[in-house]
Amino acid sequence: MKKSALQVARASYMPKMPKALRGQVIAVEGNATQSVADQDAIKNLFPNTYGLPLIEFQPAKETREYAPIHTGVILSGGQAPGGHNVIAGLFDGLKALHPDSKLYGFLMGPSGLVEHKYMELTADIIEEYRNTGGFDIIGSGRTKLETKEQFDKGLEVLQELNIGALVIIGGDDSNTNACVLAEYYAKIGAGVQVIGCPKTIDGDLKNEQIETSFGFDTACKVYSEVIGNIQRDCNSARKYWHFIKLMGRSASHITLECALQTQPNYVIISEEVEANNLSLDDVITRIAQIVADRAAAGNNFGTVLIPEGLIEFVPAMKALIAELNDFLAENAVEYARIKRSEQRNYIISKLSAKNAAVFASLPHDVARQLTLDRDPHGNVQVSLIETEKLVAEMVGAKLKQWKEDGLYVGKYLAQTHFFGYEGRCAAPSNFDADYCYSLGYNAACLIGEGKTGYMSSISNTTAPASEWKAGGVPITMMMNMERRHGEMKPVIQKALVKLDGAPFKTMAAEREIWAKETLYIYPGPIQYFGPTEVCDQPTKTLQLEQQK
Ligand code: FBP
After folding, report:
1. Where, in this chain's numbering, is Mg(2+) bound (predicted)?
2. Interatomic CA distance for residues 265 and 223, integer angstroms
3. Residue with the nearest Cα to atom 12 of ligand 1?
4. What angle is formed at CA 170 by the lines to CA 167 and CA 172, rounded to 5 degrees?
């Protein structure tokens, strides 16, 4: 494969690691843990993996002999920068346990395990992928591992390859499945440990123990670079309003982080919309007012950041989506038989009166996008809903009305953008390169200690990497019961933006002035070589959250 000069130079980057992981480790165990909510239900469902203690690794005083352990690895769900370094760290960690340990990659996500598609990851292959973006080393997929048949089928290939541990690199849903699998293999005495790693650009897999998911840092820096470029263009031509939708599923972490990095004229935070019980019209009115005020000051331009999950948080839309989710799950076969031209009326006829009215009031495209297939975990595919166009058009319609009423004079030309896929496979920032390598290496340590049902955890991440803490968090500790596909299921609780958290409060304290004045920040591209303050800074979200 031909490589760019940067890729060649980057290949030799040695990820920085916590001191504790630089030699052999001992596991220091804390007290028994419990799930964040629904303790009885989760305990019943996970009798073998519930209540395990938190683990922190410390440097070992005496060296120990480890037997070789063959391990499988799966990349699950959406790509996130740094996945290759998790695998590289895991490989190096397993080899440090015993040079005869082998690493197998299951191909194209969890389906590789079920369909017995795999490859051995040798030192030569790993070398090619160190510090690179993407998940192409083994590919990724969204197959949900949830049935006994899938687990048993997977076990066949694990036993055939003499694999004693499986590492699942995924988001909240994939780590939930990792835990279900750990529980099942523990229950049947399969002799396979299962360890999870926190991946997702969305930043919504975090809690007291897991400070951030990998990929969030790089993806936000890539989006912020491009938002900065748009802002500079916007401030040069002074003729467009740019509506920029950002990935992130339900949570607005990416949007909030990008706002902190770039200071746009307005940023919508879905969690705030819900908390304040705002209608879509309230949100549109606020933006139109900012456009009108800036126009009055001679500024017919600006930028608005929109989280891709917005629609789900507008209370009326949320109720509609919840009913649609259940309806489509229960009537999938019948719905599939309805002609496309009749689907809209069919849905309207089946929904409760209130939700049918909301559905009918939506532009046809947006309404249809809400009925598209859910992903395998039952989530609405919000990246397919063109909220940026919806918002830009609705603001335009409101301004037109205000113009007719003599309330607004100004020009309004809108451009829309959606940034998501652009950032998911970027070459990892130094932070993600270091964090991911440590997560993978640490997963090997958890395997060496015989643990199962744990998520690899690296914390104290705003300190220099040498001071990071390494250990494991029982996955059941992060779980609660939620409704999915019409049924109550145990799932890892998604972390949404906290309105009383420092990142939101910092943005909220500044936003009036961002709206009025033009205070754009142009962050520029990620830097890999140079001073620490340019190359090694974690996200503003992490810095503000960890500020004591
Ligand atoms: P994960 O939750 O699997 O990490 O995926 C994140 C994400 O990039 C979301 O931000 C986005 O909504 C979704 O994946 C898009 O899914 P797909 O890759 O299937 O188009």
Report:
1. 172
2. 16
3. 249
4. 120
